[in-house]
Amino acid sequence: MLESVTKNIFQYAAQNRVLNKAARRWGLKFGAAQVVAGETIDSAMKVAKELNDQGLVCTVDHLGEFVSSREEASEATQYCIDTLDKIAETGVNCNLSLKLTQLGLDIDYGFCLDNMKKILETAKKHHNFVRIDMEDYSHCQLTLDMLAELRQEYDNVGTVIQSYLHRSLQDVKNLKGIPLRLVKGAYKESPEVAYQDKEKVDENFMAIIKEHMLSGSYTAVATHDHHIIAKVKAFAEENQISRDQFEFQMLYGFRTNMQVELVKEGYTMRVYIPFGNDWFGYFMRRLAERPQNVAFALKGFFSK
């Protein structure tokens, strides 16, 4: 019961615009510096290089939510382009992740689509890949619609599917052949659209992983759950699925020993590196996901 209440509090905070705005003035407080790689592109590249040196590959995400003006969305678009240029310049092994709402999805669909095409053109020039993060349920179909339009011109773009949504297995079937990042999901959604029981979420997670892997599609399994990881390893072995067809993904700052161990075992392990001053919503969702993360955050706060 307490865990459920705590989760609801953090999920509410993550979507609170006033708190998000205030947090930009605080800097990386409350342990966030342990899971957010600084506020600049250069700080993110430094972390990516350090992780590459350990055999890990990366994806970077310039954090940002609640964009409400074309000016902000255009600035975010240029920042994504600058990040791709910097990745190419530094030579780090790193993709780009982004959110469509940061690029103006809530302002105008066509405007956001144009912004995405500018980013993908830059990524194509640098032979890089862009991952569209999935946001809350209200943006799910819009995200998939935009992905379908973009895939008509670009093959260097994919998205994320969340296993807690009832629709996800069918979505994965519809997205055969497209590189997908499969996750459990971190937003607060209603029982009408999402499973509320952890066992159901985990069960569906394995179902969508198996579906995408068996279809021959490139699959990124994003989880810190060692039970799920063990099941995926066994499933790949049993079905003779090449390690070149899938990868594991984890968040920067979490289960770092396991990340390195997976590399030693010969698996591709990609670290999701968030950076920027708009860190609050991301950090609150991480605290909501697992109660252990709260202790992790407090430890970081009091150690400063």
From TrEMBL:
Its cofactor is FAD. InterPro entries: FAD-linked_oxidoreductase-like, PRODH_bac_arc, Proline_DH_dom, Proline_oxidase. Binds 1 FAD per subunit. The keyword Oxidoreductase applies. It comes from the Bacteria. Substrate binds at residues 99, 285-286. Keywords: FAD, Flavoprotein, Nucleotide-binding, Oxidoreductase, Proline metabolism. One of its GO terms (biological process) is L-proline catabolic process to L-glutamate. Residues 44-295 form the Proline dehydrogenase domain. Pathway: Amino-acid degradation; L-proline degradation into L-glutamate; L-glutamate from L-proline: step 1/2. GO terms for molecular function: nucleotide binding; proline dehydrogenase activity. FAD binds at residues 134, 162, 184-186, 198, 223-224. It is an enzyme of class 1 (oxidoreductase). Its EC number is 1.5.5.2. It catalyses: L-proline + a quinone = (S)-1-pyrroline-5-carboxylate + a quinol + H(+). This is proline dehydrogenase. It comes from Melghirimyces algeriensis. The lineage of its organism: Bacteria, Bacillati, Bacillota, Bacilli, Bacillales.
